[in-house]
Design brief:
Strand order of the largest sheet: 1-3-2
Strand content: under 5%
Structural class: mainly alpha
Number of strands: 3
Mean pLDDT: 76
Low-confidence stretches: 135-154, 246-254
Helix content: 40-55%
Radius of gyration: 29 Å
Length: about 270
């Protein structure tokens, strides 16, 4: 079995208040639990499976069953585990297992999407034009890559107009779905903020490509297309799995939908007849 251990475990009362046997026991339960967070075993079976002495597990299980007013979660009065059946002395359910499993699965989904976007971006990124080291020229609009340590400015170029921009952003902007009131300056600000956070521009480029494809399928009202500043904002909509989203099918037959005006007229006529 596989179980992810969250670092918060080592910062809460389970670690700070003890006993240490409870922490050791809880780690084993997380690894041995089924997908529902249940460990349907006796303490003796746990000891045989983990090679941890029975007295350690017995003390740990008893502590995990106790209420904890200092717990982060109020569920079950802060207990970490509860019995599967009241008439049995063995078999437990981890109280917050499913909640943390959901967080784990979401983290894994985001990591998978990030890797997918990075691979796709690698096929989209153009070959950079190297700088002539003898005659550097940053006033040309040619796409260049200037490698420095960690500064995001290493991808910025100053065109002849004197406005600093990012060639990767320009590619993203040109491919972004058209939307009224879409402010380019605000979009660039959000893009630059993500770059300073360490986001690969290829990931955002791939996100734009996926979102543009989604909009081509769905054909939404232009006013409902996300602002680019929102798309590149802190919620990171560019990491969403737009490639798996499908357009809502349009009915091919049947009576037309009633408009608001038609409905009001129908209701007024019904009142007049009453």
């Amino acid at each position: 079995m596989y179980g992810k251990l969250f670092v918060q475990m080592y910062d809460g009362t389970l670690a700070t208040a003890g006993p240490w046997q409870a922490l050791v026991t809880f780690q084993q339960l997380l690894i041995l639990a089924n997908r529902h967070g249940e460990v349907d075993m006796t303490a003796e079976a746990l000891s045989r499976r983990t090679t941890i002495p029975l007295d350690v597990l017995t003390l740990g299980l008893a502590a995990l069953e106790q209420p904890d007013p200092g717990s982060r979660s109020p569920a079950e009065d802060g207990r970490r585990i509860v019995r599967l059946a009241a008439h049995r002395e063995w078999g437990w359910r981890i109280v917050n297992y499913l909640a943390y499993a959901k967080i784990r699965n979401e983290d894994e989904r985001r990591e998978y999407q990030r890797q997918w976007a990075a691979k796709k971006a690698a096929t989209l990124r153009p070959v950079s034009t190297p700088l002539d080291s003898s005659r550097p020229n940053l006033t040309d609009s040619t796409h260049v890559d200037v490698d420095t340590d960690t500064d995001v400015v290493n991808r910025l170029v100053t065109p002849k107009g004197g406005v600093t921009t990012d060639p990767d952003f320009e590619r993203a902007w040109s491919g972004y779905p058209k939307r009224p009131g879409n402010a380019k300056k605000a979009a660039l600000k959000a893009w630059t903020a993500r770059r300073k956070e360490g986001v690969d521009p290829g990931v955002m480029l791939a996100g734009v490509d996926a979102y543009a494809g989604y909009c081509r399928r769905v054909k939404p009202d232009p006013n409902f297309i996300k602002l680019a500043a929102t798309f590149f904002g802190p919620d990171r909509h560019f990491e969403a799995d737009w490639t798996l989203r499908q357009a809502t099918p349009t009915p091919s037959s049947g009576p037309p939908l009633e408009t608001t005006a038609q409905r009001h007229a129908r209701e007024a006529a019904a009142l007049a007849r009453a």
